[in-house]
Design a protein that fits this description.
Blueprint lengths: L3 E7 L3 E7 L7 E7 L3 H15 L1 E8 L9 H13 L7 E5 L3 H11 L4 H25 L6
Parallel strand pairs: 1-4, 4-5
Antiparallel strand pairs: 1-2, 2-3
């Protein structure tokens, strides 16, 4: 890989961010961004692209259980259509398939407090989205 990958779990209030650093094959939780308007959010992500030397952004697409595009996925695609005009790297969508619920399950099993879960759940969801994408590109299976 020639540069890092960023993964985003877009929520209405918070966005989880994960990264696959250059030269690695593992996604790591990076940070949670509070959404304070589109311009501010677009600038924060573009700053991360530069800081991480990212070559692509992978965004979780919340498809419905039958794989169709519902209201949540439509909102994400509408937001991203505008955001792509502000970012300097390509953007791809990846089916997030209940990534937030899976992250919450892992945190509950690890007995992480409710307050701490709230701080990291979006980052872990972004990490799962990004790792799933990366595994699919390398022919590996994601472990559930």
């Amino acid at each position: 890989m020639s540069g890092a990958l960023l993964g985003l779990d877009l929520g209405e209030k918070r966005v989880g961010v994960a990264v696959v650093p250059r030269g690695t094959t593992m996604a790591f939780p990076l940070k949670t961004i509070q959404r304070k308007g589109r311009e501010h959010f677009a600038a924060e992500i573009e700053a991360l692209v530069k800081e991480q030397k990212a070559v692509k952004i992978v965004i979780g697409l919340p498809r419905m259980l039958k794989g169709t595009i519902g209201p949540a996925a439509k909102k994400v695609t509408d937001d991203v259509a505008w955001l792509k005009t502000k970012w300097s790297v390509p953007v791809v969508f990846w089916d997030e398939w209940l990534s937030t619920r899976e992250a919450e399950r892992v945190l509950l099993e690890a007995d992480v407090s409710r307050e701490k879960r709230r701080e990291v759940i979006d980052q872990l969801a972004a990490q799962r989205i990004l790792q799933s994408y990366l595994d699919s590109q390398s022919g590996l299976k994601t472990e559930s």
